[in-house]
Specification:
The protein is of the alpha+beta class. It has helices at residues 56-70, 90-95, 97-102, 125-133, 188-193, 195-207, 252-257, 259-271, and strands spanning 7-21, 53-54, 77-79, 82-84, 116-118, 121-123, 143-150, 157-164, 170-183, 221-232, 241-243, 249-251. A hairpin with an 8-residue loop joins strand 10 and strand 11.
Length: 273
């Protein structure tokens, strides 16, 4: 007879921040952008506001990809024309912080709930207003960057146009929701410790790039105005408890420097009855 598993949510940690575009940002959207303005690669836009936004899937996927390389994890599952890492045994899964945080396919019989939820991030109102008032953007809220590839044999030039969100733009109100579980195959204390994996993913991303064209200068971002809050199971209907410092961290480096304190205060908040 199979023993029923029980998993109990102990609480959630909310990491909120703004994303500043340091160099032009290109996250690809619908190819219908070819008809609007004649660009070869258009950015993804909110269909209701026409504003560019950062999909949560882009943030989460890039963080996971960088962490897989950082931890030297095997790319053992085919997806499209490439491969990703996904633990395929319970022993590997129990030891893998990346799969515990970011999840594995639901058909794995040993899988526990994905810990990390990453929301879409929308263009901040101040940045939107500044871009709306500017006469220098090529398209609404965006610039056009022309790149030229050179045929190595004939030296013929092949120009193409890329749409980017300009440097200095702020995407406001980013939110990561990290769940803490206890019970069968879950350990709340280990889940709290794995918050460091989330912080590592953010640092790796800030040191790398987001979106496309990164090796050619696009996609450098930085995380600013970062706050961390905890909602415990015992007080889930109350306001979340701030952890770390009273004021938001100005930069990711400040949060990283204080991460031990953040983890200790998170444990304390989750343990309150």
């Amino acid at each position: 007879m199979t023993t029923a598993k029980q998993i109990q949510l102990q609480g959630r940690v909310f990491i909120k921040f703004d994303i500043e575009v340091v160099t032009g940002l290109h996250i690809g959207g619908s190819e219908s952008g070819i008809e609007i303005g004649g660009v070869d690669k258009a950015v993804v836009r909110d269909p209701l506001t026409n504003r560019p936004y950062i999909p949560g899937s882009s943030l989460k996927g890039k963080m996971r990809s960088l962490l897989e390389k950082y931890d030297n994890l095997p790319q053992n599952q085919r997806i499209g024309h490439g491969a990703i890492h996904s633990c395929d045994t319970v022993e590997a899964y129990q030891a893998c912080d990346v799969c515990q945080v970011f999840g594995v396919p639901g058909e794995r019989d040993f899988a526990t709930p994905t810990r990390l939820v990453v929301r879409d991030v929308h263009l901040g109102d101040e940045s939107a207003k500044r871009l709306e008032d500017s006469a220098r953007t090529d398209l609404p809220y965006t610039e056009i960057k022309t790149e030229v590839s050179i045929d190595r044999v004939t030296s013929a030039a092949n120009p193409r146009q890329m749409e980017r969100v300009p440097a200095g733009t702020i995407f406001a109100g980013a939110e990561l929701v990290y769940s803490i579980y206890d019970g069968s195959d879950c350990d709340a204390d280990k889940d709290v410790a794995r918050l460091e994996t989330v912080f590592e993913g953010l640092q790796l991303l800030e040191d790398d790039y987001l979106g496309g064209l990164g090796s050619r200068g696009s996609g450098k971002v930085c995380f600013k105005n970062i706050s961390v809050e905890v909602r415990s199971r015992a007080h889930y209907l109350d306001d979340p408890v701030p952890v770390g410092t009273d004021k938001p961290y100005a930069a990711l480096s400040d949060l990283i420097a204080d991460r031990k304190n953040v983890l200790a205060q998170s444990r304390k908040a989750l343990a309150q009855s």
